[in-house]
Amino acid sequence: MFGNPFYISFPGLGIAPFAMNKVAFSLFGREIVWYGVIICIGMILAFIYGSRRFKKEGLEQDDFFNILLLVIPFGVIGARLYYVLTSLDDFIGKPFLDWIAVWNGGIAIYGAVIAGIICIVCYCRAKKLSLPKVLDALAPALLIGQIIGRWGNFCNGEAFGTDTTLPWRMGLGSTEAITRFVHPTFLYESLWNLALFLIIHFILNRRKKFDGEIFCFYAAFYGIGRGFIELLRTDSLYIGIFRVSSVVGFLSFLVFGALLLAGLIRAGKRKENAAESGFKTPESEDEHDAT
User: Fold this and answer.
1) Percentage of residues in the chain with pLDDT exceeding 90?
2) How far apart are CA 149 and CA 165, in angstroms?
3) How far apart are CA 111 and CA 76, in angstroms?
4) φ and ψ at residue 280, rounded to 5 degrees
5) Which residues of 162-174 are buried (b: 16+ CB within 10 A; e: fewer)?
6) Is 170 within 8 Å of 9 (Cβ atoms)?
7) Chain-centre distance for alpha carbon 263
8) Which of 87, 142, 199, 280 is the most buried (most CB within 10 A)?
9) pTM given for the model
10) 290: exposed, middle or buried (Cβ count in 10 Å: 0-12, 13-18, 19+)
11) 136 close to 208: Cβ distance less than 8 angstroms
12) Strand 170-173's sheet: what is its strand order?
């Protein structure tokens, strides 16, 4: 990460070097950084969208709020724990406060997702809610947070990739005389997540074949996108020689891609059986209404 301020440019796109400052403003003597502001904006928009999706899935709003009260704090804990466990050499021998100091940076989205899913599973079991429906409602909301949150990395001058000469290369430097040009991997992931969100919002939400389809789609295709993007980054978390996020991403694609395919096959067979017996499935009724 560069000092404060630092400089960014996109020469291939005609954008000259401009100064970036991690600090947005001061409040009661405390510096408020852009990263935190952007994360909060992402969380608010994700909350609004998730609340509406919860209602459209036929779920109660009270359950949505209860889940958020669990997911937000445990998601932060999970994000920090994931980061610490994959960076143990940097924390061994340091005071406990350094282990939990998220305000100094050091969180990982996969840790937040894993901890959040554990909370959701436990809540759904306790309340006897449909776990697939809940995950379908929350997956696109999570994508909104991820789309916006990556721009916090931009404001920090972090989460970039290896050197490149591609037209969309991003210049980074401590002065206006920028000499290093890298892959803007934060932008790659933000755009990939935006594409997934648009597919879910405009296609899958309207043509869902089975409960859990949207979450499986999200987990599979976010995973493979993150897996490849991570291979370009210079700040990956490692276990041995393996980039943790790439391994998790590719495994996620294999597991949830298989579940997605199996679910679509089962849904297709149910539709065929219903057509043969003269009954209409919910999907066929939706298609009839659309015509």
Assistant:
1) 68
2) 26
3) 8
4) -100, 135
5) eeeeeeebbbbbe
6) yes
7) 23
8) 142
9) 0.89
10) exposed
11) yes
12) 15-20, 6-10, 170-173, 180-182
